Amino acid sequence: VCSSDLIPSIDQYPFIKNELLFAQKAYFKEYGIKGAYKQFRPNIGRPWSRNVVHQYSKTGIGLEIGVGERTIAPVSRTILSDAFKSHGADKTSLAKVFFKADKIPYEDDSFGFVFSEHALEHLSNPLKALFHWKEKLTVGGFLILFIPHQKRCCDIYRKRTPMAHIVDDYKKNIQDDDQTHVDDFYENVVLKGLTPHYEHLKKEELARSGNMHHHVWVPEDLVELLNYVGLETVYSEDCVPDRRDSFVIVGQKKS
Length: 255
What we know:
Layout: H1 19-31, H2 35-38, H3 42-45, H4 47-55, E1 62-65, E2 78-82, E3 86-87, E4 91-92, E5 97-98, E6 111-117, H5 126-136, E7 137-148, H6 163-171, H7 182-190, H8 206-209, H9 219-229, E8 232-237, E9 246-252
Parallel strand pairs: 1-2, 1-6, 2-5, 6-7
Antiparallel strand pairs: 3-4, 7-9, 8-9
Helix pairs in contact: 5-9
């Protein structure tokens, strides 16, 4: 059941039938004829990352949050969602349904896994989202997160976000367009030329458009966040071999 007539129910969602064909079409759309061989490059095909997702998404229907223009989810049984139809320099999202990350229009206990890659840091109130995502998981289900690593991504000149700050934002119910970290991101990321795909945006648009990192983390920070919302960390890897700007962490809903 879905809370909006504009969003298909899980039973009515148009899942991808042929995952291989879907992936190949995506490669050719992005790279043209070069997609025929580029798909076999580890940093493009992402075999290591796909294997991690596979290990924790073996049962049930899943939900990907903030899918963007690429996905490593098992699309034959994953609902692809996003808050925006385009990202960065107008790259079109693969999403088939659109809603905000903390307003998922599906019933609680609906998904065997929830997957998100490079999306949580774009949310001004990540704890609010994590509590919400946990509610959507079945007992025993997994939350699979790929997150930019502070030491290896565009946030390298920024400081990690303290847990106390995250909790304070949650208690204050900080909203999507919060401006707290805009100056920091603009001065230490945009002006340093680390995000050329965001240079077309004005400073005041960064938070509103969802195109900035509100928060900066390393793996132990996410362990704290998962623990706060009552998810048990069952897997954590500091460096993702086929996406080296990232780390991966998996939490499980035990009850």
